[in-house]
Predict the structure of tRNA guanosine(34) transglycosylase Tgt.
Amino acid sequence: MFRIIKKSKKSKARLGVIKTAHGEIQTPFFMPDATRGVVKAVSSQDLRQIGVAEAVINTYHLYLQPGLKLITKTGGAHSFMNWNKPLLSDSGGYQVYSLIHKNHRLGKITDDKVIFHSPLDGAKHELTPERSIQIQFALGTDMIVCLDDCPPHDVSSAAMAKSVERTVLWAKRCKLEYEKQNKKYKRRPLLFAVIQGGTDLALRKICADALMDIGFDGYGFGARPVDGEGKFIGEILAGTAEMIPGNAVRFGLGIGLPEDIVRCVTMGWDIFDCVIPTREGRHGRLFLWKRNSKFQITNNKQISNHKFQIPKNFYDTININNAKFAKDFKPINAVSKLPELREYSRAYLRHLFKIGEPLGQRLASLNNLEFYLNLMEKIRQNIKLGKI
């Protein structure tokens, strides 16, 4: 289901194809977050128009609202969203643990399951590895993720070791339930396990080796790609990528800054997802290519060094809310394939944000998604040409 087409001679980057029931996906690729079954402010038709080929949905959020009963009544997440392209569902674990780590009164984590109270109505829920897999099969997604224990990086060494132990235990249970659901639904979505261990490479190695003994289609980087101070943990990401077999998909969960995606591609990571392009768009921040940018990376040795910070030499960001755009009648994006972005002015977009008009959020989100699609296409082309 995953085939490597080309490997770079300058870095760990590679080109590949993932085959799913809803189409093939060229790797490396980026998935916009349709967390609650929608990419905020953007329709499925909008996504198709700019060429989005895949998206990620959130098991936890869709389980709570609108609930499985309603979604399965329509035939699954694809039908419910009017989306006929590949979907990946995460396990819901990150959201549950974030909830509990922020407020221990909202739930607890045991070796058997996670018990939590819904932030919507306070109702008590239990999430087990088996239940997470069952929900994802019911959603009908093409790629699914094992439930894992995802603590913040700053927990104690003992707590992180316990998290690794629990992640492996749950992965075994997920794999067993996955095989049961295969027989029930007669289909085999790709199954990803998640490597935990925080910023301790030795713990990540223990976790990775144990997960590979179980066997999965791909492996993800667990927890945030930055430390407590917001610094990119490149050495940990690169080291973790090297632990994953070359024939498996490498999933960089939550990695979304353009320069971080480039770094991680050179480390060998294949797929990415993040809320950054649409979240930033809804706040008026636009990603734009620098004029005459050829996206040429000239110092591969530096890029391969995890500690090197890639300069933002290929894109700019602007905040359309700034006063300087009030009389800026240049197009929002003169090179966009979307007529709206070529024909509406920046002054008009700023006006939309100032009056709270949702059209402004839609246009800015579409601009950013198109930028990310172009970024991934340029990355793939650079790998093909042997430049990365």
Summary: The mean pLDDT is 93. The longest strand covers residues 14-20. Residues 2-274 form a domain with the TIM Barrel fold (CATH 3.20.20.105). The CA atoms of residues 70 and 248 lie 34 Å apart.
